[in-house]
User: What shape does this take?
Amino acid sequence: MLYTLSVNGQVHRVEDDGETPLLWVLRDTLKLTGTKYGCGIAQCGACTVHINDVPTRSCTLSLEAASSARITTIEAVEGADVRALQEAWVALDVPQCGFCQSGQLMSAIALLRTVESPTDRDIDLAMSGNICRCATYNRIRAAIHEAALKLGTPT
Assistant: This one.
């Protein structure tokens, strides 16, 4: 079947089975490979994208379900919050292997866009669906705090 997707501000017409996970459409059809495959059961967060500005696991969301949504991938996020997070990520040496980073950043961006002054609990809740095999959770939390401070929202 033919589906229309709004991805990163562009409209794409995709012919595929409606049950195909959005992740595979993004990676294989649209060649947006920043979104990673981790577990395939929405438990690790590597495949996180924004669906209508809400962090969502793309490995279990069907093409049909996503066809009416506004989809944003790591390739298209921008703004002061994104720059602040990227700078904090680098300054605090957050990435180790780097595999989970796009999903981690997508969740962190959504958090900073919805919570003006996130507490440790806010951060832990927002990031709880993102697994880091290298266990840099303390650095991730510190980087989110640093980015919020830079944005003028003390945590």
In short: Residues 21 and 61 are 5 Å apart (CA to CA). The mean pLDDT is 96. The two ends are 48 Å apart (CA to CA). Residues 101-114 form the longest helix (14 residues).
